[in-house]
Amino acid sequence: MSRTFRKVLVANRGEIAVRIVRACRDLGLTPVAVFSAADRSALHVRLADEAHLLGDAPSRESYLRIDRVIDVARRAEVDAIHPGYGFLAENADFARAVVEAGFVFIGPRSETIALMGEKTSARREAVAAGVPVVPGTLEPLSDDAAIAREAAAIGYPVMLKAAAGGGGKGLRLVAGPEEILAATARARSEAMSAFGDDRVYVEKAILRPRHIEVQVLADEHGHAVHLFERECSIQRRHQKVVEESPSPFVTPKLRAHMGDLSVRLVKRAGFVNAGTLEFLVDQDGAPYFLEMNTRLQVEHPVTEMVTGVDIVALQIRIAQGEPLPFRQEDLIQRGHAIECRVYAEDPDHGFLPSPGRIAGFHSPGGPGIRDDSGVYAGYEVGVHYDPLLSKLVAHGDDRAHAIARMTRAVAEYRIVGLRTTLPLFARVLQDPGFLAGEFDTSFLESLPPDHQDPEQVDLAAVAAAVMAFRDRGRAPEAQASAERPSPWWQAGVRDGHRA
Amino acid sequence: MIFDAAVAGRTLRVSVRAQDGAYTVDLDGRHFHVEALFDGPFLSLSIDGRRHELGIVRRGATFTVTSPTQVLEVEIRDAARPSDPSPRRAPSGPARVTAPMPGKVVRVLVGPGQAVTAGEGLLVVEAMKMENELRAPRAGVVLDLPAREGQAVESGALLAVVG
């Protein structure tokens, strides 16, 4: 069954909403944005043809309000809704509500989201499909004493995980029985505030694992393919910061094996649209299925760069009922791609969020560079949402070429006014372990701390003194180099159409 | 104009003179020819011909300088008119040299009572596997020298006084 869309509502914010708006434009569709009161001047609002206010800044008053998103969809008369990632993207109730309201959900069916989005049922499904999983409870446990008993039975160290989780929230490594009850309480409370669901389960912790995931695409006509792997081992607080494809760790044999397992599981689950299967790979190269993300992944651009496939555009085309335009044997990995996630966080102080106004923004360019950013100079990075500013992606003929291009791009990138993870990438990209492709998920913890370079100190002193000299005699209020954004813009973006 | 620039736990004496559209900068006794292009929050610097592309934002006396590898905050004071109103703290008074971060004193380069020029190395402190030479913030005599070779020091520990 083929449908043709005219208007698509983008039920998200930030860089991913910008990405989806761009995919809509590429397909000749009209993108409709939604925003919270804190996001009136956000880039995704500025780039859309229409933008509608959802509610107050807290996401449960705006981006998580199913009723309001559906209401906007009705008023704007859209054909389909793209959920992006996070927020409502893996909410089966939302997918069902979208369809019941007469719109197309750009993603899997709500039953598949319920089946594969919930980690314990996804694990049962994997076991049934013959896909290996990490030993652990297949059911979420609401009783803390039962968790402690299961943990002891599996053997420490164990991992506590939120049943409804993702993004590292509600995730705890527990070294021994003395920590289990306190860790369970923290995991439950994180899971409750992040997902409104405090059920957690427990599984064996694989030490020094590789975190490798497989991108899949499936249409409504029974075709499913994988788009190879992404290496996601460089993480902080269990959240990825650097991803690449192909993985320097994965052999052609392991790649084919993980791809086959993924397609097998996707077909068994009746999955449609774009998804990602996450695997832990132990030091012997054995993959264990971890979970499935039934939605677009943050790091999808690295796969797009090496396969030449526009995953977001294909999500929309699949939702229109089109068959996949290629088969597995048509897909190859060409060259190598790396993504660095530029967060408004201070890498020198425990990745503390660093909100504030972006006083200056200069995005790098040139061959092989792609910058998927959601911000601009003058934009105020708030405290309400994930502090991801941009995803910087470099593509090269091989890994060394991609690293050289990424090094060049990181050095060209200028974000002034707040702390970002850019200086961290300058260090990661010249770390011998990273260059050799020898790293695991503990990489950032073992990265040597930043040293105080005396030349940098001298340079900063000269720069500041020259500016102070230039500013001498100016009125103090004229010395503030950052101007406030004019209020016309804030006032201009209200509920409804943009001028 | 002469400034005191406090950055990364150190205070550097910086003098800036305008000259033919460029600047002559004296940093702890070292001279540099500096060309500066201010472009909003960006600053393109040439220091003796070497290029540096920086971000710089000023809030009062605090300048936040962003380079590709580091973000440093610099506190700038007019050395001729110290904003610190405490008595007897004239620019000609004794200057304290303190440890910029926790580390170890690996070498002491001067002795008590020795005359030093501004910018002369006083001692070397190793921190985070990097050796940092701490230099005399002004010309004078080493009045006090509590630092001992091999000594572990906390951030802010007094190492030498030059007056």
Task: Offer a concise description of the structure.
The complex is a heterodimer of chains A (499) and B (163). Chain A has 499 residues and is α+β, with helices and mostly antiparallel strands.
Explain how this protein is built.
Chain A is α+β, with helices and mostly antiparallel strands. Chain A is built from 18 helices and 23 strands. Chain A has three domains: 7-106, Rossmann fold; 135-204, Dna Ligase, domain 1 (2-Layer Sandwich), CATH 3.30.1490; 210-446, ATP-grasp fold, B domain (D-amino Acid Aminotransferase, Chain A, domain 1, 2-Layer Sandwich), CATH 3.30.470.20. In chain A, 35% of the residues lie in helices and 24% in strands. Chain A has an eight-stranded antiparallel β-sheet with strand order 13-12-9-10-11-14-21-19, sandwiched between helices. In chain A, strands 5-4-1-2-3-23 form a six-stranded mixed β-sheet. A three-stranded antiparallel β-sheet of chain A has the order 7-6-8. In chain A, helix 4 runs antiparallel to helix 5, helix 5 (110-117) packs across helix 6 and helix 7 (144-154) packs across helix 8 (180-195). Chain A is globular, with a radius of gyration of 23 Å. By secondary structure, chain B is mainly beta. Chain B folds into two domains: 2-78, Glycoprotein, Type 4 Pilin; 95-162, RNA polymerase II/Efflux pump adaptor protein, barrel-sandwich hybrid domain (OB fold (Dihydrolipoamide Acetyltransferase, E2P), Beta Barrel), CATH 2.40.50. The radius of gyration of chain B is 17 Å and the shape is globular. The model of chain B is unreliable at 84-91 (pLDDT under 50). The chains are: A alpha+beta (499), B mainly beta (163).
